[in-house]
């Protein structure tokens, strides 16, 4: 995870932006600098395997990446990666199916290979998925062995990754999500943006002409792009409201603060999944299945089956059950200080979720479903305080203290280059009249 000293070093000189590569619909890297002298085409697309072989001839090794696709098999993947190693392929086939992820390919997972100029495998990694708040990554690795009878060995490993900051600027023409897509801001980052904006106004009412700037982490391991991480800074400029949030952490403080050092960190997520509100917290509601009038001490969030559900705050799972004529698959998390939360009608739990397990705010705990007494796929979410249900959409969930004294001075020093960076990005955005993102190296 990137700390603030590392971020300040990356952002310390505002002119760094001018030396960065800018990605937008109105700019691109020149062909002379972005492509090799010769490109081999196949059915209108670049033949990655041939291209890798061309590059590999000029170096000791080369890294290649691919993402598992629907209807993929190991041979198709190895061909895309440029692997020409019969001994490696025989070794993969010799691994027991229960230990071999190549025998049960999951679409969307990233694979990275390190190859010799002849296409022989030095090492290959198949990464498990991670969420935006993960601090390490687990992967299955096969590597060439210098000892023993076998040419290769395999193992499951967990490693910390490196991060670099990426800045992006977006201009709203129709919707917040549309602006984010134009600026190539990842969905995982936008979930965090919406969480920060959610306490200030309805994100669905963002107006044409609003704009926002963000800095977020991009995570890597040995050159492999592992996707976005934590939102580090947000500045939103609306017609009637401005919102700012800066991530700050030291030995004693951790969270989001505004420029004055006041905490904007919410103890709980108001909506623990990306979904549409279909039923509110209500003392009297007609039950959609039984037709009876009864209280609805929670909120219903409609989403497709399989939509990820995240823990609304740090805590311990105290209940994990199935209730056929009720909540279906559900669990309850005790957050301490009298707070607990309930997640019901799941399709399944995330791996490792069981009673007694500690979870972190924003950690994946399960998936939206339609188990129990339901009429459609949704999450029923409840938040309790001292045993009494409270409305998670309106309750005061902010408990953070403002920064003062020496810590406030440290915070001011930390966010000063970030604010300059975002201001310069905003000016660039206005000058080019386009949504854009900037990699800061």
From TrEMBL:
Record's keyword annotation contains Calcium: no
GO biological process, one term: proteolysis
Csd3-like second N-terminal domain boundaries: 172-282
Signal peptide interval: 1-30
Cellular compartments per GO CC: cell envelope
CC cofactor: Zn(2+)
Protein name in UniProt: Peptidase M23
InterPro entries noted in UniProt: Cell_wall_metabolism_enzyme (IPR050570), Csd3_N2 (IPR045834), Dup_hybrid_motif (IPR011055), M23ase_b-sheet_dom (IPR016047)
Location(s), subcellular: Cell envelope
PANTHER family: CELL DIVISION PROTEIN YTFB, PEPTIDASE-RELATED
Lineage: Bacteria, Pseudomonadati, Pseudomonadota, Betaproteobacteria, Burkholderiales
Keyword set, alphabetical order: Hydrolase, Metal-binding, Metalloprotease, Protease, Signal, Zinc
A single MF term (Gene Ontology): metalloendopeptidase activity
Main localization category: other
Keyword Hydrolase: yes
Chain ranges of the M23ase beta-sheet core domain: 295-392
